[in-house]
Amino acid sequence: MSLPAPRVAILGLGAYAPEARITNADLEKLVDTSDAWIVERSGIRERRKAAPEQAASDLGLMAARMALADAGCDPSELEAIYTGTASGDFPFPSTACVMQAKLGCIGGAAFDLTAACAGFLYTVALAHDSIASGRFKRVLCVGTEVLTRITDYNDRGTCILFGDGAGAVVLGPADVPGGHRILHSRIHADGRQGPLLHQPAGGSRNPASHATVDAHDHSIRMEGREVFKFAVRTIPEAVERLLSEAGVKGSDVRWLVPHQMNTRIMQAAGERLGIPPERTMINIDRYGNTSSASIPLVLNEYVKAGKVKKGDLLALVTLGGGLAWATALVEW
Ligand code: UT7
Questions:
Q1: Does one domain contain both 152 and 254?
Q2: Whose CA is nearest to atom 7 of ligand 1?
Q3: Burial (Cβ within 10 Å: 0-12, 13-18, ≥19) of residue 79
């Protein structure tokens, strides 16, 4: 398969995480767990927690403003805002619309898409196509989550994992100087696996009631072991497909940029792809799983630390509720 010449690039990147932390010691006080178990099974030591007055749009705006400044892009130039979130401000209006009002770029497109942890890379794929088709010249993609508001702190199988954060990129045409070209991207889902990772109540299937609140059914429910097995198989396969279609070998990839879901899953994927741990971006120890925010959050950390050099090939991969997964190959 020969791919068309790259037409779209990342022009700016930003990320934000709130200050407050939930440590493993904090969780030991809430559920029957231990720091040693959490570190060994997931790699997580602490996660961030939004302040009570912060919602997903507030975190997203912090990241968006950084990405816009990084791109040298005035908000008035934005023609669209695409947001991936599973914990938006409201069922509607969209978190993208809430952010649009605050950024002041009125009249362009703004919406959220539901692809859980794959949300951010889904927005990037969509923004890529919006720009490649000539529809838009500047699109803001945001992944933002306040997962601590939909986490059940009675459920030790999930509460150890999730944290809050946001990340954003500005995309534009590949001929803009300083851009990081998107060489290829793919989006996937297997809807049969939906019950493995879901939020049972709050939609039209199971509207909010006293019973749903009492049952904690507005929180994330997960068959962790099954998601783990699906991810260990699917993530490397998805990256192999991305790379083979782009004519790139695992050894050519400078950085694997995985969704921060579990250190063991990320390491297993790296091993199978021939990408050693020192070339795999990891910050799950300090942020936990931030769903759609996790890829821009870890990428921003490595870029701002000067670890990513011009020309480096980056393989981004994520998987989560849906089950939905996505990949992207970026030349930095
Ligand atoms: O973004 C996508 C979101 N989803 C994920 O990232 C989930 C992927 N899955 C995982 O990361 C892992 O499955 C977990 C970290 C959630 C769990 O690790 P695991 O090695 O798959 O554990 P398990 O669910 O197979 O449970 C093993 C044992 C069980 O006890 P028994 O049945 O063997 O007696 C659990 O009850 O560990 C027990 N357990 C815990 N023990 C201490 C489950 N959670 C905990 C806990 N502390 N927090």
A1: no
A2: 224
A3: middle
